[in-house]
Amino acid sequence: MAAAEFLLAIWAVLLTPGPTNTLLALSGAQVGFVRSLRLLPAELCGYLLAVVPLAVIGARVLDAWPQLAVAIRLVAAIWVMYLAVKL
Fold first, then answer.
1. Residue 15 CB contacts under 8 Å (≥ 6 apart), including other chains
2. Largest CA-CA distance found in the chain, in angstroms, rounded
């Protein structure tokens, strides 16, 4: 993955509603937009600390064991179906 693609993927994740984005929105509602801006670097660092190692290590592992990629997708699909039923 090229650097530009990686950065676009990170921004897509940051713009997708989720727990951290919900917390940022609540912070903005409570203390205002400007005071909530200080949380953005922490959120970005958190994503980078999680995504970069997983991408680097995960790519090598999945290249070595392609069957593992299929198993991970299957488990993820089951998890999403479970969450959908519970929701």
1. 21
2. 48
30-44: per-residue pLDDT in tens? 999 899 889 889 888
For 71, the token pair is: 């198993």
Q: Per residue in 5-24, is it b (16+ CB within 10 Å) or e — as a string?
A: eeeeeeeeeeeeeeebeeeb
Q: Which of 45, 46, 39 is nearest to 23 (CA)?
A: 39
Query: Which band of pLDDT confidence, cut at 50, 70 and 90, is reported for residue 1?
Result: low
Taking the model in full, what pTM does it have?
A: 0.50
Rounded CA separation 65/37 (Å): 41
DSSP state of 71: H
